Amino acid sequence: MKSKNTKKGVVMGLSVSFKIKGGYNSNQLLAAYKNNMRKYKNYDEKENLFPENIKYNVLLYGEENIYQGVRKIYKVEFREAVDEYNKIQKRSDRKIYDYFEKIASDKKTNLFTEIIIQIGDKYYWENKSIEEKQKMIEVFREQIKIINEYFPNFKMVNAICHLDMISPKTHIIGVCVSNKELALKNNPKKIEKTRLNGMDTYVSQVEVFNKLTLLKFHSIFSKKSIEIFNLVYNLNEIGNDKKLHQNHLELEEYKKIAPTLKKMQQEYDNLKLKKEKLEREIKKLKKEKNDLNSYIKKLKQEDNDE
To answer: The pTM is what?
Structure first.
């Protein structure tokens, strides 16, 4: 049996979404914790969320306290590298006393990384029952295994399945742990890689999730995800990985067309200014016309009175 994923009557393949975003400071980490674990004061006021289904959300991996979990990863993964770094520092002001806090104050480096995975869009799920959506829990568990296997340097802290939305989603929080060997592996053309703070092991989202690794991962993840989905749901869906590629390649594509877009934007802004100027002139002319008509009418009235 093959189900139909339709949007405005068009039969499409089932999309597999794998979105990556980073958080730069502890405030953003707390915000992610609040959102992912649904720690809202006014849950009912949140758009696109259904309070009656919050009980179906499931913690698939790790611990609930994301903030403490990320801090723990920093202590475990970077303690030795920090100690070795501090040993060679002659000045105390150059030593790192809390690597978590150091990165949290660095606006150029992601403190943590969040991955959002989803199969199918709202058009696919909008008429599905909560029982049907609950089957995605098993699918998400298997997807998490694939991610852990393919990206061992992404240290997962927490994964929560949300079923209180139209489309089932899983949000994953973790820390990207890199080193010189990984940097050279992912960037073979670079003879030497400058390491953050001179540490042997350091946090770096761009070295764990870079264009080369993601391009290889995409096709594998999409194919296996659809296979798992079909097995769990006893369907025969086909994959549509357009969204999967788009999320990570759109930045590169944007860079290519950015100059053209900038030129077009400037032209648009100039035309907009000209339009506004013309509208002001037209408004002024209309007023002058109305004033002239009123004056002519007044003169005619005076002639009639005489």
So the answer is: 0.73
- At residue 115's C-alpha, the angle toward residues 113 and 121, to 5°, is 155
pLDDT digit string, tens, across residues 161-220: 999 999 999 999 999 999 988 887 776 665 454 444 478 899 999 999 988 889 889 889
pLDDT digits (tens, 9 = 90+) for 259-282: 776 677 677 777 878 888 898 889
Structural Rg of the chain based on CA atoms? 28
